[in-house]
Specification:
There is one protein chain. This protein is mainly α and 243 residues long. The protein is elongated, with a radius of gyration of 25 Å. The two termini are 33 Å apart.
C-alpha cells in the first residue's frame, strides 16, 4: 500500500505533476541554465587564472550567464503562476508561486486519496511516515569523505594554489597587487554566493532533473506530517461520534 501512496504522490500531487509538466520549455530552460551558469563561471575563472585570458570578455561572459540564469528563473516563475491561476483558480500575487494555498491544494489531493483508500487515520499515516523514513535511511549512500577530512585535504592545496598565483608577482606595483587581491576575493565571493544559492535550491534541482526517489520521498513525508497536524485528535473524534 505504501508503494501505491508513493506513486499517487509522484504522479498526481507533486509540483512536477501539477505545474512543471504544463510548462516544459520554461522548466528545461531553467534546469539547463542552473547547470550551465556555474560551469561557465568556473571555466572563466580557470581561463583567467591559468591561461591569462582577456579579463573583460571573461567578466562579460560571467555576467551574461548569471543574467540568463536569473531570467530563466523569472520566466519559469511567471509561467508557473499562470498555470496555477488558470488550472487551479488560485490567486497569486508577487513573490513565490509555491504559496500556502498551492500547498493546501497538494495536501487536499493527498488527503482525498488516503480517504478513498481508507488510510486517513492518525495511526496509519504515522505508520506510513515511519515506513518512508526507513526506506529513506536504507537508500542513503554514505558520504565518500567527511567534511572535516575534506577541509584538511583542501587547505594545503588551496595554499599552494594561491602561491602559484602570486609567485611571479614580485615586480608588481603595490596597487597592482591590491587589484589582484581584490579580484581574487571578488571571484571567491561570487563562487560562494553561487554555491550558497545552489544549496538552498538543491532539493528542487535534484528532484526536477534527476527525479531522485529520496527527494520525492522526503516531500511525501512532509505532506503526511502536515496532514497529521491538521487532523483532529482521535479522542475528540471518538467523543463527537458518541455524541
Amino acid at each position: 500500500m505504501k508503494d501505491l501512496v508513493f506513486k499517487h504522490y509522484q504522479n498526481k500531487v507533486r509540483a512536477q505533476a501539477l505545474v512543471h509538466k504544463h510548462i516544459k520549455k520554461h522548466y528545461y530552460f531553467l534546469n539547463t541554465m542552473a547547470i550551465l551558469c556555474p560551469a561557465i563561471i568556473l571555466t572563466c575563472i580557470y581561463i583567467f587564472v591559468f591561461k591569462e585570458g582577456s579579463g573583460l570578455w571573461l567578466f562579460i561572459s560571467s555576467i551574461a550567464s548569471i543574467a540568463a540564469f536569473l531570467y530563466s528563473g523569472f520566466s519559469f516563475s511567471n509561467a508557473a503562476k499562470k498555470v496555477i491561476r488558470k488550472r487551479y483558480k488560485i490567486s497569486i500575487g508577487k513573490g513565490t508561486w509555491r504559496t500556502e494555498k498551492f500547498k493546501e491544494l497538494q495536501s487536499n489531493k493527498l488527503a482525498d486519496f488516503l480517504h478513498n483508500k481508507d488510510l486517513k487515520t492518525r495511526w496509519k499515516i504515522e505508520k506510513l511516515i515511519e515506513l518512508y523514513k526507513n526506506d529513506r535511511e536504507k537508500s542513503k549512500l554514505p558520504p565518500l569523505i567527511a567534511p572535516s577530512l575534506f577541509l584538511a585535504v583542501l587547505t594545503p592545496n588551496l595554499t599552494q594554489f594561491l602561491f602559484y598565483i602570486y609567485k611571479d608577482k614580485e615586480r608588481m606595483q603595490p596597487y597592482e597587487v591590491l587589484e589582484l587581491f581584490l579580484g581574487s576575493m571578488l571571484l571567491s565571493l561570487i563562487v560562494i554566493a553561487i554555491f550558497t544559492l545552489y544549496k538552498r535550491t538543491k532539493d528542487n534541482i535534484v528532484n526536477d532533473i534527476f527525479q531522485n526517489k529520496n527527494s520525492i520521498r522526503e516531500g511525501l513525508i512532509q505532506q503526511l506530517e502536515d496532514l497529521l497536524l491538521r487532523m483532529p485528535e482521535e479522542r475528540k473524534q471518538a467523543k463527537d461520534i458518541k455524541n
